[in-house]
Amino acid sequence: MDERHSMISVENVKYTYDGAETQALRGVSFDIERGEFVAIVGRNGSGKSTVAKLLNALLIPEEGTVRIDGMDTIDEERTLDIRKKVGVVFQNPDNQIVTTVVEEDVGFGPENLGIPTEQIIRRVHDALEAVDMLSYAKSAPHMLSGGQKQRIAIAGMLAIEPEVLVLDEATAMLDPLGRKKIIDIVNELHSKRGITVIMITQYMEEAVDADRIIVMNDGLIDFTGSPREVFAQGDRLRGIGLDVPVIVGIRDELIAKGLIAPCDVLKAEELAELLCPLLLKN
Ligand code: ADP
Ligand code: MG
């Protein structure tokens, strides 16, 4: 097998749901390299979840190919291997809970994939530790907050020890604090363990730390670039129903009013650094 293939390779993929009149994906191509952190953004219905489901063989392309570490998802003999490699966390935490005890829930995925019991015990422990939920191992999942449930769902994926973690709007139903905790955990998994992360989100703030952003619209990739490149194109984003992060919006207004020079800052701290000297001058 070619050793130089991408971790994920999506080539001209088209997909239509049964009974749907239009294609959900109309020819999507992208590669993601091992260890990359890629954000996928796009308004509702643009095809993001369809991409997520294609990445762990929940859906199979009607045209084109999806390869995970060289394995074609159309090859049913590789489905289990693909699901061990790519963990997907979905939007609704309640739909992802399957048992009545947290630790059983986290062990459910690995058990289904045939991982030996003695290994599962260690994996469940490590996964709960990684999402800071070890003290809830014996708790009932339905008693937890939405954010805690999502951390359990992430732990369930981590227990499979995937090389790729896909989060499909996993923070959408959470309050800001729950959301931040998830983002911090994911950033740490990426930076410390080198896990390849695909963060699908409607919150532009969550895309700021990505290596690269893929912008989807209407079943196609509209454009891609680094966060600085993508968020320099506010008008283009607004044109397809998206926006820039709040800080970038403020930045652009300050630039438009001539208060600061054109720049590509993305974060509050960077903007504060620009503004402090101005405030002190007056
Ligand atoms: P997103 O995740 O960006 O909101 P989706 O991938 O869920 O977008 O949906 C892409 C398109 O496919 C939308 O037009 C949506 O209505 C349609 N779609 C999604 N799921 C189904 C389904 N199960 N049956 C029929 N159409 C669907
Ligand atoms: Mg979706």
Structural class: alpha/beta
Helix and strand element order? EEEHEEHEHHHEHEEEHHHH
Task: Please give the count of helices.
Answer: 10
Poorly predicted residue ranges = none
The CATH class designation is Alpha Beta
| Percent of residues in beta strands | 15-25%
Spatial order of the strands forming the largest sheet: 6-7-8-3-9-10
**Coarse shape:** globular
**Gyration radius, to the nearest Å?**
20 Å
Overall pLDDT level:
93
How many discrete structural domains? 1
CATH architecture: 3-Layer(aba) Sandwich
**DSSP E strands, number:** 10
Describe this structure in words.
38% of the residues lie in helices and 20% in strands. It has 10 helices and 10 strands. Helix 3 packs across helix 4 (117-130), helix 4 packs across helix 5 and helix 5 (146-158) runs parallel beside helix 6. The longest helix is centred in the middle third of the chain and has 18 residues, at 176-193. Bound molecules: adenosine-5'-diphosphate and magnesium ion. Adenosine-5'-diphosphate is lined by residues 17, 20, 24, 42, 44-50.
Defining key terms:
282 residues; alpha/beta; Rossmann fold; six-stranded mixed β-sheet; four-stranded antiparallel β-sheet; binds adenosine-5'-diphosphate; binds magnesium ion
Q: Which SSEs are present, and which pair or pack?
A:
Blueprint: E1 8-15, E2 25-32, E3 37-41, H1 48-55, E4 63-68, E5 71-72, H2 79-85, E6 86-89, H3 102-112, H4 117-130, H5 146-158, E7 164-168, H6 176-193, E8 196-201, E9 212-217, E10 220-225, H7 227-230, H8 234-239, H9 246-256, H10 268-281
Parallel strand pairs: 3-8, 3-9, 6-7, 7-8
Antiparallel strand pairs: 1-2, 1-4, 4-5, 9-10
Bound molecules: adenosine-5'-diphosphate and magnesium ion.
Magnesium ion binds at residues 48-49, 168-169.
